[in-house]
Specification:
- By secondary structure, the chain is mainly alpha-helical.
- The protein is built from 13 helices and 2 strands.
- Helix 10 packs antiparallel against helix 13 and helix 12 packs antiparallel against helix 13.
- It is globular, with a radius of gyration of 29 Å.
């Protein structure tokens, strides 16, 4: 009898061990499969970027050769020789157009319109529009989050409905308005001010909703404690609420900045002078002039994308924290 009981216990332990091993083995296989799928997706998304960077450092002969090669490191006797790689910067030289001046400290100046005109214009539009959108969306989101007033729900519903209207449908009216403003000869009027206002009006509605979501996640008890300590409503907003809402406001800034930086059609139609055009117009200009010079177009793409990449490298921690907090608190 005792031996039968021991045998049953041993068999149960064996079944439990087998089930646990099968469970952990299945979990490990699922984890490996999930990581493999994510890796494949990342590689597919990085492929166009890597191709653009590689083409920007190739010579024109290596770009148009058939059959094409990924790396220009082949020789008549070898398909790949690292010592024979033919990397070139002629694409960047065509875009930047350096001109020797002999002046200190570099001895040359960059005369290309992309770096001298178009990218600074876009930097001005994106920075000014982003800061103004953050300020306006922060104040509006805080007011809607903390105060109850008649028509509040209708107002937020209307703002949400406005976000569904694409900018393209309003371009004809905005273009005619810009023409009328130029004809009116208003003092201090500038097309650059007009395009910044257009960007603010287009990206502000969605930003108000994002800011409201972050303010809703901040407990009201923190403000009440600040009021008890003698802090004014404005002081509580700037000293208590704004630092806590910093990830959300930073995400609004980044989203607005990237959207303005990548925008083309409004800057192309609403700005009359070429010296006011954004960077995407500069890329379009290069595309029309260098339709077969892919290394030049690739170099222009890399230079246009570089400021946004640098911005995300310095602000990625705040942006990812905003994404995590929005997922957990939303």
């Amino acid at each position: 009898m005792f031996k039968q009981i021991q045998h049953r216990r041993l068999r149960r332990q064996t079944h439990s061990t087998q089930r646990a091993t099968s469970f952990f083995g299945r979990r490990t296989a699922e984890r490996w499969l999930f990581n493999a799928v994510l890796t494949a997706i990342c590689l597919v998304m990085l492929l166009p970027i890597a191709t653009t960077v590689l083409i920007s450092f190739k010579r024109e002969q290596d770009v148009v050769r058939k059959p094409p090669v990924i790396l220009p490191c082949d020789t008549p006797t070898s398909r790949f020789d690292p010592t024979a790689c033919r990397w070139a910067t002629e694409g960047y030289a065509r875009v930047l157009a350096p001109k020797s001046t002999g002046a200190w400290p570099l001895g040359f100046t960059l005369t290309g319109n992309l770096l001298r005109t178009y990218i600074p214009n876009t930097l001005l539009y994106a920075t000014s529009a982003s800061f103004l959108v953050v300020g306006l969306a922060g104040m509006a989101g805080y007011a809607v989050s903390r105060y109850r007033f008649p028509g509040r729900r209708l107002l937020m519903t209307s703002i949400l409905a406005i976000t569904g209207i694409p900018l393209l449908t309003n371009l004809l009216a905005l273009y005619q308005l810009g023409v009328d403003l130029r004809k009116a000869q208003i003092p201090f009027y500038d097309d650059r001010l007009y395009i910044v206002l257009v960007y603010i009006g287009f990206f502000l509605p969605l930003s108000v909703w994002i800011a409201k979501g972050f303010f809703d996640a901040i407990p009201r008890e923190l403000e009440e404690a600040a009021f008890i300590d003698g802090c004014s409503p404005i002081g509580a907003l700037w000293r208590i609420i704004m630092p806590l809402a910093q990830p959300g406001l930073m995400s609004i800034f980044l989203l607005t900045f990237v959207n303005v930086w990548n925008e083309f059609i409004a800057g192309y139609l609403l700005l009359a002078k070429n010296e006011f055009k954004p960077a995407m117009f500069g890329l379009y200009d290069f595309l029309s002039q260098n339709i077969i010079n892919f290394q030049v177009i690739s170099a222009a793409c890399v230079l246009i994308a570089l400021p946004v990449i640098i911005l995300f490298l310095f602000t990625r921690s705040i942006f990812f924290r905003a994404m995590v907090e929005g997922a957990l608190k939303g």
